[in-house]
Amino acid sequence: MSLSASQNRAGLALIAPASILAIIFLIAPLSSILVLAFTDYQLGDRSLRFIGFENFQALIDDPVFWKSLSNTLIYSAVVVPGSMLLGLVSALLIDAGTSLRSFYRTAFFMPVMASLLAMAIVWEFMLHPSFGIVNTTAKALGFASHNWLKDGDIALYVLAVIGIWQSFGFNMVLFMAGLSAIPRDLYDAAELDGTPHAWERFRLITWPLLAPVAVFVAITSAIRSFQVFDTVHALTQGGPNKATEVLLYTIYAEGFEFFRSSHAAAITIVFILLVVSVSLLRFVSLKKNGEGA
Amino acid sequence: MRTILTAAALSLMASAAMADTTTITVQYAYPELFDTTQKEMLEAFSKKHPDIKVEFRTPYKDYEDAAQRVLREGITGNVPDVTFQGLNRVRVLADKEIAVPLDDFIANETDFDAAGYHDGMRQAGAVDGKVYGLPYAISLPIVYYNMDLVKKAGLDENSLPKTWNDIIALAKKIEAQGEADGIETEWAITGNWLWQALVFANGGTMLNEDETKVAFDGEAGKQAIGTLARLVIEAQSPNMTPNEMLAAFSAGKIGMMVTTTARVNAVTKQIGGKFELKTGNYPDLKEGVSRLPAGGNVAIITAKDKDKQKAAWEFLKFATGPEGGAIMVKTTGYMAPNTKAADLLKDFYAENPNQAVALSQLPYLTGWYAFPGDNGLKITDVIKDRLQSVMDGSRAEEAEAVLADMAADTQALLPRR
């Protein structure tokens, strides 16, 4: 298995472009973040001082950071199952129906493609406490109206609903791709064997064969929901009273509004660890599935 | 060899020609608001100073972007020669030695005060007693009235509120009509601008003289937080985001709104013909006691080269002077801090009385206070969060306890000396 020297050189030359790009755009920025997290640097400073773990110590004592971390996890815990379930149900319904399939597909996929920032402004009008369509409808139907974005108890969940609305179309497309890969004759065989109920067919055939896709969808949804920023920035700015503060928004505010760059770098490290650990899950599950198949 | 010599000779000639005209680069924020303004101003400036060539850099998106970029450029050394920044960012730029102090330039001017660059205007761009910028486009807090709702409540333009008591009384009357909320303040704007207005108007300050201790928890601050609490408890001020407030006011769902003058143009347009809009002075202003913080932006010299600094100073004087101010007011809706600018704008203000209201508040003008130290901007966020708990009603009944918490939070973030 030993390679000749020229083969080695050719190999190195071939990976050079990719590695150089990775170093410039990935490794270098990441390592500078890592270094910054251990300094007292503020944007605009001409010098910096290493202060060890002080920034991380400050994070532990910072209630805003903990609030931000737990909000991010709560948001994910709502958005991931919500967008998966809605994505799966709509994929199954579209797959089962025969008419207007491409219309539904496009309609449900629309929120994924639309600019979330522009859509956030539409949501803001719909959720307006005194004349938004949500409250006027609720009043007409006899339900209590709410100040959706300014009520600390519900604001985060309102954002999560917008998050589900925005992302389920993407999951739907992935599930539809998964469904189309399931051989039709399995269903025919099931019918012959006497499982006429749709639910039984789903439980015995669709779901087991869709499982690898589902794991993939769950993990990408989780990573994407950790990255929630646009709606928070446009609608609540982390408020009221940090009720909707999420990690990316905290990083943005610390780094670019308060200029506490080293503080922001420390939170970024935490954020990266979170995303990497979920990505590792995906790696492990893919490996397992790969072996199983 | 010959070509090199010719090239050297040519470049010498070029630099000799350059000595006659100085080129300065200028960068401003909010292109959608200031593109026309800056273009018109440049035309007028070039006529007066043909020896100074002004080049604009691509404008900053907003004040955050402006401060970030100039801070980064401060490290790499390619700052513009003049930069327009949000008024509460002057301190950061002074601390990081990016802004050039203007005191020597001002000392060399004769009759600077008489030309309209009054003391309040210089204070607005001052840090630790040194002037680092001259305010360009400024805004002050005023009250917006929906006159249809005011009239239904039994008042007219001659009996508009002058005090917070009047405002709360009127808010209750508007509320009683059942059509709209009485009053909403844009208390959250930039985190603490309106809070500063409330405290300054009562004669208070944010910190003590040597900036080591919180001072807004004194009598002026107690009164200020008390006013906010009364708005929530007595006047039932709704809990809205700034955007929601603007939409609701323009839709005729709020009777009064307290916010910056900079919104007059946009609000007038949004209202269209739905109802009559009138603006009125900020309440309870007491001569000699009250001051109001200027919002808006400030022109700062960042050039390091002496000649460029001189040219930049000419540009600064023009932009913040009567002529530049007049152009800016006509094209934006902000106010010009220079007292002589108003003389050139008599016709404009006669036609736009809603914009003229804030002019009478110019004598109260003071700086938009920036907290000292590395956590200066973080402090504004802490204040905003504490105010939130009064404004959403959750702690309105114990407003003074909130004030004490706010003071403790702020104190913890101040630099320890």
Automatic annotation (TrEMBL), chain A:
The chain crosses the membrane at residues 12-38, 73-94, 106-126, 154-183, 204-223, 264-284. The keyword Ion transport does not apply. SUPFAM superfamilies: MetI-like. Residues 69-282 form the ABC transmembrane type-1 domain. It holds the Pfam family BPD_transp_1. It is a multi-pass membrane protein. It is found in: Cell membrane. Gene3D superfamilies: MetI-like (1.10.3720.10). Keywords: Cell membrane, Membrane, Transmembrane, Transmembrane helix, Transport. PROSITE patterns: ABC_TM1. InterPro entries: ABC_transporter_permease, MetI-like, MetI-like_sf. The keyword Transcription does not apply. CDD domains: TM_PBP2 (cd06261). Belongs to the binding-protein-dependent transport system permease family. This is Carbohydrate ABC transporter permease.
UniProtKB/TrEMBL annotation, chain B:
SUPFAM superfamilies: Periplasmic binding protein-like II. CDD domains: PBP2_UgpB (cd14748). It comes from the Bacteria. The keyword Signal applies. Keywords: Periplasm, Signal. Residues 1-19 form the signal peptide. This is Sugar ABC transporter substrate-binding protein. It comes from Xaviernesmea rhizosphaerae.
